[in-house]
């Protein structure tokens, strides 16, 4: 019976404040959609880091005839200098860090350059001799690239040693900025949702102040009076959370799986299984924030 009365009071409040409830639903929906998107972006960044960092190579660029570095005083790297680099790569000091390596000569570097920049006018101005011959090295642990840099940077015939991870870092940094921006927007929207829920509860309580006074006179407990108002906020937040969950599923299904994945098959994108992990989180966040803000509003402003 008591539950029936509580539910009746909650539904009465929802009917009286339909427009405000719709506002709460929409704000919660938008804010939690941003939260879910930000979480998926962080999951995507984590997957990409694990994939690309493991594949990142260290490039040992050999001197060309035009190189002016201190280690290139003799012009283009000689056969003896190339053999010395390869010997060091297979030496007991370096070999334990190396998974595999291969050599790329001028012609191979030129062919790869032409393929990469085939639509760029710059490709027509480059000759094979201008491109470095290179030893491409895959490390067992990509984070230990400093070992190769220390071993080969000052070696005669070597122009430079470059870790490809430095290029990946800038890409992931940009993705992190986008993710943090989404989190920031989501945070502002969640604050707006909390304030709107509190305002809705205050208006609902004010419109029923006579009923509340009667309930207090007949001995109703504070918890009994507060619960319908809390349920109003939680109901609106649950609807908004479910809509946000649906939006996240739609984004993953239509945009990620339907567009990004087919056009970039070399990237392991987040999928529906990841979305189904995020959705319960959104519902929990929505319910907790709604319950806390509604409970605070009814205690703070009605002084029950």
Automatic annotation (TrEMBL):
It is found in: Cell membrane. NCBIfam families: FtsX_actino. It comes from Okibacterium fritillariae. Residues 57-161 form the FtsX extracellular domain. GO terms for cellular component: plasma membrane. The keyword Manganese does not apply. The keyword Transmembrane applies. Part of the ABC transporter FtsEX involved in cellular division. One of its GO terms (biological process) is cell division. The chain crosses the membrane at residues 21-45, 177-201, 229-256, 276-298. Residues 185-303 form the ABC3 transporter permease C-terminal domain. Its main location: membrane. Forms a membrane-associated complex with FtsE. It is a multi-pass membrane protein. Gene3D superfamilies: 3.30.70.3040. This is Cell division protein FtsX.
């Amino acid at each position: 019976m008591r539950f029936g009365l509580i539910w009746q009071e909650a539904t009465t409040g929802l009917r009286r404040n339909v427009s405000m409830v719709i506002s709460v639903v929409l704000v919660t929906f938008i804010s939690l959609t941003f939260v879910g998107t930000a979480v998926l972006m962080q999951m995507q960044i984590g997957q990409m880091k694990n994939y690309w960092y493991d594949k990142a190579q260290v490039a040992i660029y050999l001197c060309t005839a035009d190189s002016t570095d201190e280690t290139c005083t003799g012009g283009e790297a000689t056969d003896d200098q190339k053999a010395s680099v390869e010997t060091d790569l297979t030496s007991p000091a370096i070999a334990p860090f190396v998974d595999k390596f291969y050599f790329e000569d001028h012609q191979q570097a030129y062919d790869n350059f032409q393929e990469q920049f085939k639509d760029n006018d710059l490709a027509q101005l480059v000759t094979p001799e201008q491109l470095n011959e290179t030893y491409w090295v895959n490390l067992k642990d990509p984070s230990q690239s400093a070992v190769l840099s220390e071993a080969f940077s000052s070696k005669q015939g070597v122009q430079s040693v470059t870790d490809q991870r430095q290029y990946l870092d800038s890409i992931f940094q940009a993705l992190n900025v986008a993710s943090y921006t989404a989190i920031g927007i989501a945070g502002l929207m969640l604050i707006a949702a909390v304030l709107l829920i509190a305002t809705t509860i205050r208006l609902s309580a004010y419109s029923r102040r006579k009923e509340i006074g009667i309930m207090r006179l007949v001995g109703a407990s504070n918890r009994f009076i507060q619960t319908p108002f809390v349920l109003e906020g939680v109901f609106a937040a649950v609807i908004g959370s479910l809509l946000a969950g649906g939006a996240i599923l739609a984004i993953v299904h239509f945009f990620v799986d339907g567009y990004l994945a087919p056009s970039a098959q070399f990237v392991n994108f987040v999928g529906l299984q990841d979305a189904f992990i995020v959705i319960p989180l959104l519902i929990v966040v929505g319910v907790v924030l709604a319950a806390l803000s509604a409970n605070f509003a009814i205690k703070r402003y009605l002084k029950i």
